[in-house]
Amino acid sequence: MPTEPQVRFYLGANSPAGFYSLYDELIDPLEAKSIFILKGGAGCGKSTFMRQVARQAEEKGLPVEYIPCSGDPDSLDAVILPGQKSAIVDGTAPHVVEPRYPGVVERYVNLGDCYDYKALAGKREGVVAAMTGYKGCYAQAYRCLSAAEEVTKNLRSVLETPEMREKMGKRARGILKREVRRREGGTGRVTRRFLSAVTHKGPLCEYGTVEKLCKRVYELDDPWGLAHGLLCPLLRGAVAAGWDAIACPSPMEPGRLEHLLLPQLSLGFVTSGPQLRWDRHAYRRLHLDAMADREVLKRERGRLRFGRKIVQVLQEEAVASLAQAKEMHDKLEGIYNPFVDFGSVRRLADQAAAELLGPV
What we know:
- The chain folds into 2 domains: 7-115 and 341-355, no CATH class; 162-292, no CATH class.
- The protein has 9 helices and 16 strands.
- It has helices at 46-59, 117-120, 124-131, 134-159, 162-179, 207-213, 228-240, 294-336, 342-357; strands at residues 7-8, 12-15, 18-21, 34-39, 65-68, 76-81, 86-90, 106-110, 190-192, 196-199, 202-205, 216-221, 245-249, 257-262, 267-272, 284-287.
- It has a 6-stranded mixed beta sheet.
């Protein structure tokens, strides 16, 4: 029996400029009831804590939004409980989260107290050795992603003409007229989330989230990174019509949109490219390169294809560096894990769950 897809987004991205954070948009502290900020080093049980609370929420039939780590998507950086207006987040670097209203909204949970410090004292040399070169791997990955971004921008500049932008705008207006009726109650709200990430496993996209939230999905077949020109007017039009939107930037260029979800309309717009292709049913499929100038595409086809190969090689090098960093982190966690009292971690998680979710 197939499992129900989870709602999973990223709030951090391995981008050409380094780690790009949306963690200040985790949840609005003015509306939040509780935000638990977890502190503690490697292997201390932060993911274990969050998964335990999330599991209890799901057992109660409550919605959960999972925020995996962009460095290691099998690990969690946060969980959001929308119905409870609450969240639990890993508040350690690189996504440092500081309280705005400490004590009345946010509170710290120190999982470092679950370490056996006396036993760990003899592991100092191993810990230092495991950390050596870790930051350098990320620096190398970011250099490769930066080079890939420059090539991508150069390729896109060949195709993005005023005529193409006008075609995009016209197509967006047609979609809005057909799919997005006006809603009473003013303008909608925009939430920013990364749907995709460059990880140690390669580029990933959380297509299960789209399945969970949207029954109708426009697949934007986009081999050259042109979708931003269509998604921006769609976002503006949907919000102006009164609908909330989840705007999903590209991890490679966080200033540009890559996907757009309108859950209240069960409508999504998903970019599908050479590396990450939408492999599910598409309500409609748009070929964005068809909006580019035919003569330009024909004349520059060789250059465009060669540039895309360069981008792929650079991204593969970045992924290799992220994988190396992951190996180092796994070694570090392997040192710490035997000296963590996971029973205490689970008891603290149960206490948090009881407070956030109510009695079992």
